[in-house]
Amino acid sequence: MAAPMNTCKHLIRTLTRIRKPKPINVCFIRKYKTGELKKFYKNASIVQNQGWFEVNLDQRKLRTPTGNLFQVPSEPLALAIATEWNSQKETIKRQAMHLTTLSNTVLDNPMQRSRGDIVRGVLHFLETDTILYRSTEPQEFLELQKQEWDPVLKWFRSSYQVELDSTTSLMPPEIPENTEEVITRKVNSLNDWALVGFQYGVENLKSIILMLAITDKRLTVEKAVQLARLETLYQTKIWGNVQWHHDVDIYQLQSRVAAAALFVHWCSNDMATTHKTTYSNQT
Amino acid sequence: MFTPSHNKMANQQKVNLGRLLYKRLSREMKITANPKEKLYDTPVFQYIANQFREHQVTTQKLCKGQNEVMMVGQTYLCMLESLRKSEELAQMYKTTERSIEQSANLVGLKLPTVDH
Q1: Rounded Cα gap, residues B72 and A266, in angstroms
Q2: What is the largest CA-CA distance in chain A?
Q3: What is the C-alpha separation between A86 and A41, in angstroms, rounded?
Q4: Is residue A279 within 8 Å of A114, Cβ to Cβ?
Q5: What residues in chain A have their Cβ under 8 A from chain B's Cβ atoms?
Q6: Distances in whole angstroms, Cα of residue A191 to Cα of each of A198, A263, B72
Q7: For a Cys staple, A193 with which of A89, A201, A267, B6, CB 3.0–4.6 Å?
Q8: What is the pLDDT of residues A104-149, one digit of tens each?
């Protein structure tokens, strides 16, 4: 934060020296440079302020990309975010800071999404859920799908008292109305913060059922990612694993989904204090 | 007669899993944290230690599921480990992009010369 301020002051000084007659708009302090940002702080810590938790980088308060104050409703989440900032070495690697990014999305709402938009986005994955689509050949893969995906589907059906069948065709399966209603209610029961985390998880896994299994503590993140990548797993067992492609894929997926799961857990009402939510006043 | 010892074994397994989780979490935090500070002093580590202390008897909270807090710990561990490994792989496989001349040399060609 210090560097842009200095360049800005310098800029103002040089321009005033030139003495342009018309007024100059020099307030163009971008919070984050597009190039590599060096680590400009020594320590990240958290403070509590009126029920919200803020992150301090040295003495300065962390802000979102649009300049809002960075606040989260849960202490462990704030601690984990401070850890993310503390883990940065010489440069800031924002692509590794998933919890920070998720929190920024909730606070800024850059795509102006309402709750309804997000819930609809999540439900969209129901008819294209990964574990519902079975490919019929090769036979070995069909067996593998049955072996790995069927237990999860069985748990899902019994736990939520809904009917949902897998399909072997290209067309999406028929979703019974009751199923859709139950799942919509379940997704809607998440508060604004947890909802964003949940949607991020579903997007990455390409499956609501797997994400629900994670948030209901029925599957570990590693197992869920494995199930989401079952076909790739099967192919790499036959044709070989390429470390810089497949392993990178696995670790990236795992880190994202784990971050989403933690976000949902820590922001759910029993862990966090409930506040006036950011999306409720939009429809 | 059989059940108490069976329970005892299951409990011992849970305790062992807990110990393992604690060890692995500490290791990850040591790697990512500030080397100047003692890990024990950081608020994050104190939070983790408190969680382990609080939930010694049972990890069931709000009837949401068995081992709920353990799973949260495991999920956090998963996130830390995955980030670290993904970074390691990126470092291991990073290369600088070759210039056009170097790429041409790979297949035994030279760049055409331009006469002005």
Answers
A1: 9
A2: 79
A3: 9
A4: yes
A5: 43, 45-46, 75-76, 79-80, 82-83, 86-87, 96, 98, 214, 216-218, 220-222, 243-244, 247-248, 250-252, 254-255, 258-259, 261-262, 265, 270
A6: 10, 11, 19
A7: A267
A8: 999 999 999 999 999 999 999 998 888 888 888 889 999 999 999 9
